Amino acid sequence: MSPAARRRWIVWGGFAAVLVAAPLVFNKGFSLSLLCQMGILIIFALSYNMLLGQTGLLSFGHAVYYGLGAIISIHALNLVQAGWKFPVTLMPLVGGAAGLFFGVIFGYVTTRRAGTTFSMISLGVGEMVAACSLMFPAFFGGEAGVSGNRSAGGAFLGLTYGPQIQIYYLVAAWLLLATAAMYALSRTPLGRMANAVRDNPERAQFVGYDPQHVRFMMVALSGFFAGVAGGLSALNYEIVTAESVSAATSGMVLLATYLGGIGFFAGPIAGAIVVTLMQTALGSVTKAWPFYFGAMFLATVLFVPGGLASVAMLHKRLWDARLVKKAAGVYAIMAVPSVVVLGFAVLLVEMAYNASDESRSAFNALGITLDTTANGTWIAVIALTIAAIAGWRLAWRVASPRWSELGAALAGDRRR
Amino acid sequence: MELFVTSLLNGVTYGLLLFMLSSGLTLIFSMMGVLNFAHASFYMLGAYFGYAISTKVGFYPALVLAPLAVGSIGALVERYGLRRAHATGHVSELLFTFGLAFVIAEAVRLVWGSTPVPYKVPVSLDGPLFTLYDATFPTYKAFMMLVSVGMLVALYAGLTRTRVGLVIRAALTRPDMAEALGHDVPRVFMLVFGGGAALAGLAGVIGGNAFVTDPGMAESLGTIVFVVVVVGGLGSLTGAFVASLFIGIVQTFAVAVDYSWHGMSISRVAPVIPYFIMVAMLIVRPRGLMGTRET
Q1: What pTM did the predictor assign?
Q2: Domain span at residue A381?
Q3: Looking at beta carbons, which residues of chain A come within 8 Å of B107?
Q4: Do residue A117 and residue B294 have CB atoms under 8 angstroms apart?
Q5: DSSP 8-state assignment for residue A104
Q6: Handedness of CA B147, B149, B150, B152 (dihedral sign)
Q7: What's the pLDDT tens digit per position in B215-268?
Q8: In terms of domains, do A111 and A171 share one?
């Protein structure tokens, strides 16, 4: 076995092992449903990255395929309840087929142009479907949603899909399958041509490929995988509401994918995990979590356009070049000022939230009670925040030459 | 007849309000080559600032102060956010404005809560202006029309008759040449972005109390403004004007008309119509009504 093949086996074997072992470690009912949610978002985000990362198509309406897949799956599930013989295990395929079907229809319409036009048509299509979902409440379920029963098919090899653990392993199996399929797809000529179309459509055309056709294929296939994720979500939650086709869902998958990093295949996986964890962890601590979430996204766009995956890659390269010690020095200088600035920013946000809350309780920051309605408190905290930012800039003045030294060393290392 | 005239007047008022947003959006598009997702968020900020200022000092000062505040925020966003995102390409810019819209909506929720605020029409402008076939036309609608037409005239005159307007137009069409002639093009861009944001803010101050001021207002109007700009043709002010009136009137009529077809009433289909027009337009004529370039 060649080293590359061995590495591939290790990575995929490790992935499968993690999927099998995860519920044994996190075996509480709550963490189990969290894992299911994560798995579904991973498939959804990976399917989104087929467009954004691999083909360079920024879509604002990807929830259309996910949501329609979910809705058609839940209707199919109700058909099974009524006596249709179809194994529930394969229900995600129904969602996938629905996603593929709408991917073909909308893909034909949207892929005639790339770039901003594509983004806008995708937004238009997304809004159109979302508006339709409120127009046909019988099919889309409206605000209340359509509910189903995942154990409708009866027992099959002892699997009823009643207990959450069985749904988890169903999600895990589909996750492994879908991830492998999407990875394989990125290695096919179509996947490679998608990269070419992303980088230079004109040259791709000169080599004899029609960029529009390549984009169309990618949109249709990514619609399929989004539909699979939708089908799984229908089984997991046993309810599908109009929210699943909404702009909020499209925005969520875009955020998760970009946060993870669109330049690497594994990026969206990391993004989906982080987003699900943040939603639950932050959501239980503060009501302001969507704000932090958005701020984190903005910071990623401005400062780390490569996302989490690029940060990980940078550290791998630092490690390979034996520069980790030097990098740690920079982090040591910047750690305290960064934490202080971040702390003050969080304090300001929480104070604003507390001040606007009618049923507010006394605001307590590290044991100090602050009166969030008094102007004096605000002036003091804002002044301290500005001082903290000034301190951060001073520290950065010390650290930045070392940081650029590191960058130069890495660049030199690559040249060698 | 009565329904027709009142709907037409309402449609024109709404269309003019749409134009206050779409004019800024289309100017910013000609400048950056990217649509600003956060444009309607500036409209929302205008409405909330207008509410906050009018409860403290009154509506008329708010009419001036709130757009100025929103404009300064817009200029800061361009200077410290967009300019940075621009370096990494169009996708980053688009994503930045998308994220910004998200953050602004959440910030508004944090400060003012998620329920609508009681932003009311000022007493001096409350009440009917005239009666037409039993239907009354509110004074405030006339005031909205007056402000938006006044702004439209000022914008047109400013862009075509003043030296600043000349420099802006030069910087938009031939940035390199304008720069070579000694104009600070990045500063012009900042000015245009701030100006567009201020216009959206003004629309918010006069629109927020006519409709509703809640954290969802940016999203609901934002997509409509997008439709307007795309249908009118990106970068074309005239196109934006025509499309604003068109969409405004179509939407008002669709809600007002009581007609059903195969059990499907028109007013239920109303929310989809603009998007349908947009998708159809992008397929048939991606330039839009009067656009000079493809999107």
Answers
A1: 0.86
A2: 321-415
A3: 291
A4: yes
A5: H
A6: positive
A7: 888 888 888 888 888 888 877 888 888 899 998 888 888 777 766 666 566 667
A8: yes
